[in-house]
Amino acid sequence: MRVRRGMSIAWTVVMGWIGLSLSLWAQENPLWEQGVQLFQKKDYAGAAAVFEQVVAENPTHPAGYYMLALCQLNLNKMAEAEKNLQKVVELEPKHFGAYYYLAHVAMQRKQYKAVVQYVDQGLPNATRPEDKALVPAALKLRGAAHLALGNVDRAAADLQQALQAQPNDDSLLYLNGLVALRRRQAQEAYQYLNRAYTIRPHHRDYARYLMEAANLTQNYARTREVGEALVARGGASPEVLSHLGIAYLALQDYAKAVSVFKQLPDTNPTRLYNLAQAYIGLKDWPNAEATLQQWRQVQPQNPKVYELMGYVYENQKRFKEALDQYKKAYELSRDDRYQDMIKRATQALQQQQQAPKSNSSTRPSR
Each residue of 284-309: pLDDT tens digit? Predict the structure, then answer.
């Protein structure tokens, strides 16, 4: 969340807070008008230098400290901005804008409890129309902080209220999508994140979480579309590749699934499992077997390893080996569904053993 995006609102807050005394004070202090003009031209360094003079000449006037702080925020001088915003609050305890930007500074530092505290202190003072213009942004800050602190219900309340005021704010749609994911409301998460991504399709976080929600709601074609676009822009992180590979598996595009899963690091916990499934989909039994053998070394107590290994053997008519794998899966899990596999492999093995063997020593007559 960048300060510059909301700076015109901040100027409205300043104008409304100073009120009618602005023109009289500006006449007495020509430096003020000079600082304002530089600020409006986005010459924040020049404006800061002027407002430093304003503060020196008028050390008890909070407006000078506030404008100086806004300049410093735009110059990414957070410590100096925080000091001057604290001075504003000291001189004018009900200055809503100062509390808002103190919350902004705290958010940049990931001091989430401080964000909540500042917004709690500021919101009761947002009584003027010009103050209320910043309320949705303040709710967004507090909602994001609550989310980071794990207070999902409080985050939802703030972010929903903010979204009602700004229904097309992509960052609010994104944050509401994250809340829905935390609540395991996959369809709602997909709707929010899809809207956010539609507004800003080059935002990597929007794309990444949309892929997660799309897979959860079985919108695999959307995952593929978003994932391929993200990879083409250089966003092939392990998480993105994992979501994309799962979509390829669901869409039965096994060759692409193999290509994607092979790019994942060995430390990825589901890499071997998904890669084996992709090889199975291709009926590439040797690579499927080799992958499952690697997985068995990593997770020897996982019954799924032996289930898939049994399936691979069964498809190669290696029924004795398949039977042993299914029995191992049942031994580890005591899951009755493996009994059907054991029965099937047993019957296939018996039929194989009863089948007449060709006599290789008998030579055909000439």
Answer: 999 999 999 999 999 999 999 999 99
pLDDT reading at 346 higher than 80: yes
Name the burial class of residue 294, with classes exposed (0-12), middle (13-18) and buried (19+) by CB atoms within 10 angstroms of its CB. Answer: middle
Nearest to 195 by CA among 230, 163, 152: 163
What token pair was written down for 11?
């100027």
Question: In whole angstroms, what is the distance from residue 326 CA to residue 208 CA?
Answer: 37
Q: Would you tell me which CATH number, out of the four given (3.40.50.2300, 1.25.40.10, 3.40.250.10, 1.25.10.10), belongs to the domain 1-129?
A: 1.25.40.10
Rounded CA gap, 266 and 243, in Å?
16
Work out the number of other CB atoms within 10 angstroms of the CB of residue 95. 24
Summarised one tens digit per residue, pLDDT across range 129-158 is: 888 899 999 999 999 999 999 999 999 999
Q: What is the 3-state secondary structure (H, E, C) of the chain?
A: CCCHHHHHHHHHHHHHHHCCHHHHHHHHCHHHHHHHHHHHCCCHHHHHHHHHHHHHHCCCCHHHHHHHHHHHHHCCCHHHHHHHHHHHHHHCCCCHHHHHHHHHHHHHCCCHHHHHHHHHHHHHHCCCHHHHCCHHHHHHHHHHHHHHCCCHHHHHHHHHHHHHHCCCCHHHHHHHHHHHHHCCCHHHHHHHHHHHHHHCCCCHHHHHHHHHHHHHCCCHHHHHHHHHHHHHCCCCCHHHHHHHHHHHHHCCCHHHHHHHHCCCCCCCCCHHHHHHHHHHHCCCHHHHHHHHHHHHHHCCCCHHHHHHHHHHHHHCCCHHHHHHHHHHHHHHHCCCHHHHHHHHHHHHHHHHHHCCCCCCCCCCCC
Domain ranges within the chain, ordered by starting residue = 1-129
